[in-house]
Design goal:
Distance between the termini: 44 Å
Radius of gyration: 22 Å
Number of helices: 15
Number of strands: 17
Oligomer: single chain
Structural class: alpha/beta
Cofactor: Mg(2+)
Pfam families: Mur_ligase_C, Mur_ligase_M
Protein name: Dihydrofolate synthase/folylpolyglutamate synthase
GO molecular function, one term: ATP binding
CATH architecture of the largest domain: 3-Layer(aba) Sandwich
CATH class of the largest domain: Alpha Beta
Family: Belongs to the folylpolyglutamate synthase family.
Low-confidence stretches: none
CATH topology of the largest domain: UDP-N-acetylmuramoyl-L-alanine:D-glutamate ligase
Mean pLDDT: 94
Length: 431
């Protein structure tokens, strides 16, 4: 039941949600399923694609969404976390939902929640499902928040499920080995439905779990693949049916990085398993038009800014590979801030010799690793004289921007809150 104390504005709702559950993360579907049932079990009346994985989820969702919209379909997308505004998490027709729509959805949930505690993410997931069910959509894409099997979005039996990659991340919740993590990620697969695996060398456990569940596996390098071509790249299906044909001379995705062809291939494979039509022209337009803030986002100016939410060892290695291809004639400066549960040393290692000057710092996130502790971890790796330490990220960006010269590159990475601080900074080139 709603009371006079029920929040009225989105900011008030979000502040209230933070304290609703004693734990920030509480995996499991029992509580959220009970509230979802009370809410009327809202589900989009259209096909749903669920996207999980360690890295590449956001890019894959963005490409699916861009292609679907280019094909003329009304698409909803749910992603997390956000960079600047909570509304970024829920998009309808490419636009963030309004404060008013979110507040109305939150109020409907609170009216039936009773005494069941929900986490911040669970409450938001229910709001997304409620809004998408009301929007008359043709396709919905849901990004898994953490893991898969026990994640809130796994309430929905998706028509197609995608697992992009498997890496060592969130081990305290998902397990200490790649096999254990693969089993958790595979929890989004469903019997008799397509299970897209977007990693060539994914742990075999992932495919074995798909088979155990009874899902139909389609894996990069087996049931589909990509190759370079003279005029772009080629997507090649090996689905064993005549309905799905190769796509030649595709444009490279507008999001940067050679690994994005893996993500694009998985996105196309997922779309091709839906009961919808995606002409080649729509796929090409979607790839050209896709955008995603904070994923190797290059802002050109006298000093080139590179923003990347890379927050684990695998994504930091991908960032290093991208930086090697960056047309930057000067020195590279890096502002680095991470959360306290991340492997800071393994994240910095692939970049250690690429970066000329390091600015080690911390964000205002309650989970942030302190700049002092970050410096202690990295002192041996970076060596004396190559780094400075700042207790406030705005000051670190101030110094890095002041010391960078025309032709230099300024890399800001380590978490979503790190990139958000960069986007808010007055020195950041305007997009």
């Amino acid at each position: 039941m709603l009371s006079e104390d029920t929040p009225k504005t989105l900011d008030h709702w979000l502040a209230w949600l933070v304290g609703l559950h004693p734990r920030r993360i509480a995996l499991g579907l029992e509580r959220i399923r009970a509230v979802w049932s009370r809410l009327g079990a809202p589900r989009p009346s259209c096909p749903v694609i669920t996207v999980g994985g360690t890295n590449g989820k956001g890019s894959t969702v963005a490409m699916i969404e861009a292609i679907a919209r280019a094909a003329g379909y009304r698409c909803g997308a749910y992603t997390s976390p956000h960079l600047l505004h909570y509304n970024e998490r829920m998009r309808i027709e490419g636009q963030p939902v309004s404060d008013e729509a979110l507040c109305a959805a939150f109020a409907r949930i609170e009216a039936v929640r009773g005494e069941i505690p929900l986490t911040y993410f669970e409450f938001g997931t229910l709001a997304a499902l409620d809004l998408f069910a009301r929007a008359g959509l043709d396709l919905v894409v849901l990004e898994v928040g953490l893991g898969g099997r026990l994640d809130a979005v796994n309430l929905i039996d998706a028509e197609v499920a995608v697992v992009t990659t498997i890496g060592l991340d969130h081990t305290e919740w998902l397990g200490e080995t790649l096999d254990a993590i693969a089993r958790e990620k595979a929890g989004i697969f469903r019997p008799g439905r397509p299970a897209i695996i977007g990693q060539r060398d994914a742990p075999e456990t992932l495919r074995l779990e798909a088979e155990r569940i009874g899902a139909i596996s389609y894996q990069l390098g087996r049931e589909f693949d990509w190759s370079q071509s003279a005029a772009g790249w080629r997507w090649e299906p090996r689905f064993g049916d005549e309905k799905t044909t190769s796509l030649d001379s595709l444009p490279y995705p507008a999001v940067c990085g050679p690994f994005q062809l893996d993500n694009a291939s998985a996105a196309i494979a997922a779309l091709m398993r839906l009961p919808l039509s995606f002409p080649a022209a729509a796929i090409e337009a979607g790839l050209r038009g896709v955008s995603l803030s904070g994923r190797f986002q290059v802002l050109n100016a006298p000093v080139t800014w590179v923003l990347d939410v890379a927050h684990n060892a695998e994504s930091a290695s991908a960032l290093a590979a991208n930086l090697r291809e960056l047309p930057c004639s000067g020195r590279l400066h890096a502002v680095f801030a991470v959360l306290n549960d991340k492997p800071a040393e393994r994240m910095a290692a692939p970049l250690a010799r690429l970066i000329d000057r390091w600015y080690l710092t911390q964000t205002g996130d309650e989970r942030a690793l302190s700049a002092k502790d970050l410096a202690a971890r990295l002192a041996g790796l970076l060596g004396e004289g190559r780094y400075q330490v700042f207790g406030d990220i705005a000051l670190a960006i101030d110094r890095a921007a002041a010391e960078a010269q025309t032709g230099d590159g300024l890399v800001i990475f380590g978490s979503f809150t790190t990139v958000a601080a960069a986007l808010r900074h007055p020195a950041c080139p305007r997009i």
